[in-house]
Amino acid sequence: MGNPMKIRAASKDGVTEVKVLISHEMETGQRKDAAGAIVPAWFITELTAKHGDKVVLSSEFGSSVSKNPYLAFKFKGGAKGEKVIVSWKDNKGDTRTDEAAIG
Amino acid sequence: MNNQRRTVLKSGSGAALLGMLAAAGIITPGMALADWNKAAFDAKSMADTLKALGAGQPADSKDVQVTGPDIAENGAVVPVGVASTLPNVSMVAILIEKNPNALAASFVLPEGTEANVQTRVKMGQTSNVYALVKSDGKFFMATKEIKVTLGGCGG
């Protein structure tokens, strides 16, 4: 299921900035190991962020997003204590969901 | 999280449907990605990627900014950001011209989410990085060259 994401959400002047750090290998499928065999691709393909029930960002990743992906974005609204929920899914079908309170 | 899709996956008919799709070669087993735009992410060249995204020929715009370092010492972790002051931005994508697959990431921004995203991408070599933005149904683009130094040789 992967390791927990680090999510920081801070509200300022009616805009909430969300920063997410995900723990994931993000293997491109183009690297070779010491024996010359191709390391199979393993990367996050979809990521969705919600503020409560409302989707505030839905993204699709390719394999060229860095290992342990970082993502930052801003949305209007959001008050202290409300929840931001982030979910991802990788190309092996693994998923993970974490949430954080807006600070 | 698309709960409906998960439900479909769990139900028997969903499994049968997946089997059919796999048999038809539409999806390969283990890569049942219903929403993921495979054509766009598999496209090699900029032109093919833009076509797969339905962007056609985006106009260059000064209202789109690509942020990133001029020189990236480590091509594995290059911070790249896209910001735009255009109205009603519904989609943002980051493309790296000389990567094996140009498209790095695309973001769908619902109303209320600002056209300002930052992430980190891998770059195989020095390349132009493009930010593609969809505003009011039209596509706009901006570019920035990011130099990647290999093995500390400078460059």
Automatic annotation (TrEMBL), chain A:
<dbReference type="InterPro" id="IPR013783">
    <property type="entry name" value="Ig-like_fold"/>
</dbReference>
<protein>
    <submittedName>
        <fullName>Thiosulfate oxidation carrier complex protein SoxZ</fullName>
    </submittedName>
</protein>
<feature type="domain" description="Sulphur oxidation protein SoxZ">
    <location>
        <begin position="7"/>
        <end position="100"/>
    </location>
</feature>
<dbReference type="InterPro" id="IPR014756">
    <property type="entry name" value="Ig_E-set"/>
</dbReference>
<dbReference type="InterPro" id="IPR030995">
    <property type="entry name" value="SoxZ"/>
</dbReference>
<dbReference type="Pfam" id="PF08770">
    <property type="entry name" value="SoxZ"/>
</dbReference>
<dbReference type="InterPro" id="IPR014880">
    <property type="entry name" value="SoxZ_dom"/>
</dbReference>
From TrEMBL, chain B:
<dbReference type="InterPro" id="IPR038162">
    <property type="entry name" value="SoxY_sf"/>
</dbReference>
<feature type="domain" description="Ig-like SoxY">
    <location>
        <begin position="52"/>
        <end position="153"/>
    </location>
</feature>
<dbReference type="Pfam" id="PF13501">
    <property type="entry name" value="SoxY"/>
</dbReference>
<dbReference type="InterPro" id="IPR006311">
    <property type="entry name" value="TAT_signal"/>
</dbReference>
<protein>
    <submittedName>
        <fullName>Thiosulfate oxidation carrier protein SoxY</fullName>
    </submittedName>
</protein>
<dbReference type="InterPro" id="IPR016568">
    <property type="entry name" value="Sulphur_oxidation_SoxY"/>
</dbReference>
<dbReference type="InterPro" id="IPR032711">
    <property type="entry name" value="SoxY"/>
</dbReference>
